[in-house]
Amino acid sequence: MDSLYFAPSPLILGVAVIVTLVASFVKGAIGFAMPMIMISGLASFLPAEPALAALLMPTLVSNLWQAFRSGLRPALQSAWDYRVYLCVVLVVIALAAQLVRGLPQGALFLTLGLVVTVFALVQVVGLRLHIPPHRRRLADIGIGAVAGFSGGLSGVWGPPTVMYLTAVNAPKVEAIRVQGVVYLGGAIVLVAAHLRTGVFNAQTAPLSFLLLVPMVFGMWAGQHVQDRLDQARFRKATLVVLVLAGLNLVRRGVETLG
């Protein structure tokens, strides 16, 4: 690949910093969407593999921050409460990441985008969907597998996780913490998997580490906004971002298939 993408010009680095700032601000405010925004933005001027590699360190560190913001004990309790979902996501991410260099992603993006968009729009118009307690285990496995497969291939497993937490009606603070725990576990597995696949290497890693700086500023600013959101506004903001994220995934799927 062109060395420009591994020793970026000031212009390319500046755009990457702006993309990361926006993505991390959104994540700080509502708890997710950073990898999705980053991969969409970075892939517009970087090849797919360096773009995926670039988001790995910001994703890992931001999720460490998010998961343990309330302390170690609440994070461990969330991991236990959602252990089945978490385990399914991690196992499937590790398996799906091995396919990243050989499997077309267009169909995945299109399918996932349609599901996320329809789910969010249905709730925006006022129809509340929920997972009853006796269906929880089935949802843990089914939605967890979808999230893990998407995450392993594209680095994006936030929308299915948010769909799941919205459907079980998790309170704002718990939802943010659980997202952090799930995303942290997934980020660790994803980094390890892409060390194995070669996507994250000595050439692609430096940009990923550089983007930690704007990520810190974006997360800090976003969390100040999050602290001022009540449950209703938090839910509405989450659903709006889900609609936009779903439409973006549809766009990427159509472009990739086309």
From TrEMBL:
Cell location: Cell membrane
Keyword list, A-Z: Cell membrane, Membrane, Transmembrane, Transmembrane helix, Transport
UniProt-recorded name of the protein: Probable membrane transporter protein
Any Pfam family the entry gives: TauE
Membrane topology, record value: Multi-pass membrane protein
Alphabetized PANTHER family for the sequence: MEMBRANE TRANSPORTER PROTEIN-RELATED (PTHR30269:SF32), TRANSMEMBRANE PROTEIN YFCA (PTHR30269)
Membrane-traversing stretches: 12-39, 80-100, 106-126, 138-158, 178-195, 207-225, 237-254
Family in the record: Belongs to the 4-toluene sulfonate uptake permease (TSUP) (TC 2.A.102) family.
InterPro entries from the UniProt entry: TM_pro_TauE-like, TSUP
Keyword Membrane: yes
